[in-house]
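Why predict the complex rather than its parts? Because the way molecules touch one another can change local conformation, and only a joint prediction can capture that. The input here totals 799 residues.
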Amino acid sequence: MAPPVQNTPAEQQDGEQYESGLHVILPGDLLPPTQSQDSEDVVMAPVIKLGPGLQPMSDESIVAVKAGILQSTASANRWWVQSNQKRYVPSSGESVIGIVRGKTAEHYKLDIGAAHPALLGVMAFEGATKRNRPNHEASILGDLLYCRVALANKDMDPELECFNPTTGKADGYGGLEGGHVFKVSLGLARRLLDPKTLVLRLLGQHIPFETAVGINGRVWINSASASHTILVCNAIKNSEYLSPKECESMVKSLIQKM
Amino acid sequence: MASTSISVSAAESPAFSFSASTFQKLHPVEFFRKFISQGVRPDGRLLEGFRPTTVHKNVVSTANGSAMVRIGGTTVICGVKAEVAEPKMDSPNQGYLVPNVELSPMCSSSFRPGPPSEQAQAVSEAINRVLKESKVLDLTDLCIEEGKAVWALWADVSCVSYDGNIYDAALLSVMTALSDVRIRKPTYNEGIIKVSGAEILDDENSFTLNLARTPLSATFSLFDSSMALLADANAAEEAICQGEISVTLDEKGQICALSKVGAASSSQTLLRQCIATARTRTDELRSIIRSQ
Amino acid sequence: MARLDTTRTSAHQLRPFSSSQNLLNRADGSAQFDFGGSSVLCSVVGPAEVKLRDEKLNKATLEVIVRPLVGLPGVKDKACERAIRETLEPIVISALHPRTLVQIVVQTMKDNGSILSTALNAAIMALLDAGIPLNSIIGSVTCIIDSKTNEILLDPTTEEIARAKSTHVFVFDNKSSIPSSTSASMDVDISNDDDGSPRPLFSESTGLFTEEEYLECVNISFKACQAVHGFIRTAVSKKIEKEHQQTQA
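Output of the joint prediction:
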């Protein structure tokens, strides 16, 4: 553990430093004013876009509400805090893996790991009409569905859909057959969505497998054999806190043991 | 007050107005804020005003000591019962003094029957700590025979009517009841304890408690982010206040307990102000007890 | 004046802190915080589904459960639950997650004094780990006034508390103590600057003491709390940096 207590030089006051290095921010920390005292004419872009983890205060200052790394885009003046947690809080447009927990005449009730059950309309599938009900009609309790969050509002239960609203096509959304689903932290899930993720790339070189990653921290893996699936699951779970080098040797040793 | 009507959004729709009581039901906090900004409270008190307080001693004839306290709409009765008990192994010459506060559904509809609520337990514990840590009573006074028998004093506080500020009322009733306690002198003889059966108790056949000090308290609620101090809040005010500062003082002006919970962080000026107001208030309470 | 706790040389010295986050697999957030021989493990679940009876339409319900070291929870633990809940309620931005439950379970692991402070520090670290939106972080320390020497001792052990004239628990948030350039050390220096008096968020004092003694305790504890804030910052930063290392490559 770490008994010696020292304040990290976390308050890096000038703007350039946290563009390059890691700027860890904690709840209560104020976002430094964007050089507003330097010159009056560069008064910052008219709009600052705040992402997750930042809240405007009544006195127009901006304060962090989560612990994480302060991120920003240099051009559009977007700011957010990149943080990691385990509990999913729905946000519209995100792809999630849900488990069917109940069904009424108009809705499926899905568990997506959030505080409230999510609703998936029986018509929210590709090409569904009142006459032509999709075959997911047959969905039974415990089935896995890969869906998109259509509506998320803190005061309402989230709503889901199983098609891409821009194309009207399924685009990969729908039921997940076979395979295995397991939970990871939301931060790891976000990283896995990047096709260049090290652990997925390394595993892909040795084992063919299918995967669906829900941003709600659920990862679905399917491969030719159960032993492959288990190996892939373990490798992904182990990879979270490893450096790229450690990750490589971890995957190598797992493959060798197989 | 009830007959006046308050326009909620006069600028946009002058026709849209409520009676004061409707406004209170719809926006209790906003309703309250309007009063506070004028320096008064809906019941007519000033912000630093305490409700009228009365204390009656010896109200329960079957108890060794008792008191009834009213602070505005809050009424509590405290009865102290002395029982002979076996002392603890690690303190063979010390008796027990156990306060317990009960908030039954009888005193307010917001309490449920069943095991004591968190609030009741927290108040009991707060009183227990004041009695113990400011050394109100030397527990060795309650010893009958070392290692064999001691007095256990059960100070049970029962709330009859709840209208906020239970801590002040309960502590006041416990301290008054303790000062009222009279216990028959026991004699110990080979495992048998005898107490005198005299009809009239006097200093010959009974004893009173030797209280080292009488801690009394004043509680203030903190309203809003403006941290307006409301002395002795009633139940409705407690419900919309976020925090509380409670100061307990003995007769010499020493602090016996001080707690500040909830709301935002409070400045030292505010704390000093609370301590100063609590001084005046507890002095006032002491004179009420004396006049009894 | 020597302390009863012989491992420390000065009255204002805190015991070494240590902490670890994310220890529990099934909770949404967890942390263990140690003040020397006192240790508390805390877990956080939430925002999760709430019982209909406890549901609040405009904010999250905060539930605190305190489990003692031995035996069943008693009156003391209930009072402790209330203190922790009422301290955290203004810190958690509960309006962002209406109709949900944030459950905090506090389990004492080792008890050698200052347990409420240890529990509060563990709770805030577990909330940070769970990613519950907070408007500031808090730090807590306990101090006592020794009955023999009348000296203020920070972070007392059980033995020292037994000899105390009065006991004081304080919580400060980091809004009033944004880390200054002067690094806070373990040995708290009280002769430092005095720009605006420290503002306690939570204060619980019992025993016998005067107003002056109380305000002195506030000031000394405030300096000590800055060390706790600094520690929490370092600990959380380390964890975040570790998580981040893979994405950097």
